[in-house]
Design goal:
The chain has 2 domains: 1-32; 35-302, Neuraminidase (6 Propeller), CATH 2.120.10. It has helices at residues 2-19, 21-28, 296-302, and strands at residues 41-42, 54-60, 66-73, 76-85, 88-89, 93-96, 103-108, 114-121, 128-140, 143-150, 161-166, 172-176, 189-193, 195-196, 199-200, 204-205, 215-221, 227-233, 242-247, 258-259, 270-275, 281-286, 289-294. It is built from 3 helices and 23 strands. Helix content is 11%, strand content 43%. Strands 2, 3, 4, 5 and 6 form a 5-stranded antiparallel β-sheet that branches. A 4-stranded antiparallel β-sheet has the order 1-23-22-21. Strands 7-8-9-10 form a 4-stranded antiparallel β-sheet, with no helix packed on it. It has 303 residues and is mostly beta strands.
Length: 303
């Protein structure tokens, strides 16, 4: 009788899983990939991270059912996406591309009705300009209107603006080389700007625990602004560019940034950090592939 009871229970559990869309949806999040541990691994090799392409900024929506990421093919950058429809993920498709200008580093607004990115598109035409600006497109119903909208002169300048992320209150963090000398085009600093009454306010430079006379860019801010992760090129680094992390202290100031170490950083280039909305996974780019790792690693740096 006990054996029959166990068999019946197994059938009931299997029936519940198969008949419960929420359970299936949970397993299918993040393209149905096996979650990482505290050791980073390549995300969706052969499907998203490909040997013959360079993948950069990546972002999931809050439900982990939509993925947007940048791909560079022989110096030409475009933005692709994949989404979960029913119980199947669509094949990655091109969302934004152009034969003249580049588009890269996508990031969703807090309400997920805007997709922000960077581009070297000219303001009034489809020509290419020398610097990059922050742009966005808007969601209309279940689709994206792919008309490119410039984020405005409070954010963008005649220099480069790179890679943005948002706090849950709408504040944007991004990098720019607008304040550096002409002969130091690779010196970037990190700024933040409050979003108020539908407009980004004048950006503020983060303190010198974050910004140095080196390169600081590709910043991710946690939704509650308790920590930021960014790329920097410093003499004490492991390679061409490392990821650093800084936490806010009790007074609301940023602590001195810490190199994330050999678990994350290599002799190559690490950049494009992103932490999922559920707080489970940390994504970043390493040597032209997208990696992910359990976010327990972030807590370890705070200790």
């Amino acid at each position: 009788m006990k054996l029959y009871g166990i068999i019946a229970l197994c059938f009931l559990m299997a029936f519940w899983v198969l008949g419960n869309p929420k359970s299936n949806q949970q397993q299918l999040k993040y393209l149905g990939q096996t979650p990482p541990t505290s050791t980073p691994k390549i995300f969706a090799p052969g499907l998203i991270s490909k040997a013959d392409e360079s993948e950069f900024g990546s972002v999931f929506n809050k439900d982990a059912t939509e993925l947007y990421y940048g791909v560079d093919i022989k110096g030409k950058a475009e933005i692709r996406y994949a989404k979960l429809v029913g119980e199947n993920w669509t094949e990655p498709k091109v969302l934004l591309s152009h034969d003249k200008y580049n588009l890269n580093d996508p990031f969703l607004s807090p309400d997920e009705n805007r997709l922000y990115f960077i581009s070297n598109k000219a303001l009034e035409s489809d020509d290419v300009k020398e610097d990059y600006d922050i742009w966005y497109i808007q969601r209309e119903g279940n689709k994206w209107n792919t008309k490119l909208i410039n984020a405005g002169s409070n954010i963008n300048t005649n220099k480069n603006e790179y890679y943005m992320s948002f706090a849950k209150n709408g504040s944007v963090y991004f990098s720019s080389n607008k304040d550096v000398e002409e002969n130091k085009q690779h010196d970037f600093n990190i700024y933040s700007s409050v979003f108020k009454e539908g407009t980004f306010q004048k950006p503020k430079l983060l303190n010198d625990f974050i910004n140095t006379n080196a390169y600081e860019a590709d910043v991710f801010v946690s939704p509650d602004e308790s920590y930021i992760i960014f790329c920097s090129i410093r003499k004490e680094g492991y390679g061409k560019g490392d990821l650093y992390i800084s936490f806010k202290d009790e007074t609301g100031n940023w602590s001195k940034a810490t190199n994330m170490g050999a678990v994350i950083n290599t002799e190559g280039h690490e950049l494009c950090p992103f932490v999922t909305k559920d707080g489970k996974y940390f994504f970043y780019t390493s040597n032209q592939d997208i990696y992910w790792v359990d976010t327990s690693i972030i807590t370890s740096y705070k200790k």
